[in-house]
Design goal:
199 residues; mainly alpha; 3-stranded antiparallel beta sheet; 52% helix; binds manganese (III) ion
Length: 199
């Protein structure tokens, strides 16, 4: 089915005091994410993917060698990634639900250790990509990183949290300081209620 650009779940200036400016969200949501939606729609028109869900398209076109499938994958996957990214940030209360705190402590030793591991994954992704907190098929929580638009659906994992580490996500607000962007993301931007709801 045709992709649709979701509205941001908050105003464009709602995260400015937390380190993600109105200008970043105007470029990132209104221009970058919209381009993935528009290009994806052009590429799936008239193909076998036209009436499939975005999840089916991501899984079905991942790692295929045909150039046309690659283009569809990149745009579909980035559309899915960004829809998740907007959802797991927010301007409101940032308390972490107890169930999530317990799960992170069990898997990583502490919430602080989880944050360290997540930041290291994002900072260590060479070039464009994403850092993730995922739930594996066996229920274990893990930190991963992926290149370009690849996402956890490709590996049968449930994405609980994703952070865009493409330069367009942080260059306006943090210039080249990706580690500072990542720690700000974890400490100020993540809506942990939304992350817990994905468990
Ligand atoms: Mn992006």
């Amino acid at each position: 089915m045709a992709f649709t650009l979701p509205d941001l779940p908050y105003a464009h200036d709602a995260l400015a005091a937390l380190g993600m400016s109105k200008e970043t969200l105007e470029y990132h949501h209104d221009i970058h994410h919209k381009a993935y939606v528009d290009n994806g729609n052009k590429l799936i028109a008239g193909t076998e993917w036209e009436n499939k869900s975005v999840e089916e398209i991501v899984v079905g076109t991942y790692n295929k060698t045909a150039v046309a499938q690659n283009g569809i994958f990149n745009n579909a996957s980035q559309h899915w990634n960004h829809a998740l990214f907007w959802e797991i940030m927010g301007p409101g209360e940032k308390a972490m639900p107890g169930a999530l705190e317990k799960a992170l402590t069990e898997s990583f030793g502490s919430v602080a250790k989880f944050k360290e591991e997540f930041s290291a994954a994002g900072a260590g992704q060479f070039g464009s990509g994403w850092a993730w907190l995922v739930k594996d098929a066996d229920g274990a929580l893990k930190v991963t990183k992926t290149e370009n638009g690849v996402n956890p659906l490709c590996f049968g994992q449930t994405a609980l949290l994703g952070c865009d580490v493409w330069e367009h996500s942080y260059y306006i607000d943090f210039r080249n300081k990706r580690p500072a962007y990542l720690s700000n993301f974890l400490d100020k931007l993540v809506n942990w209620e939304a992350v817990a709801a994905r468990m």
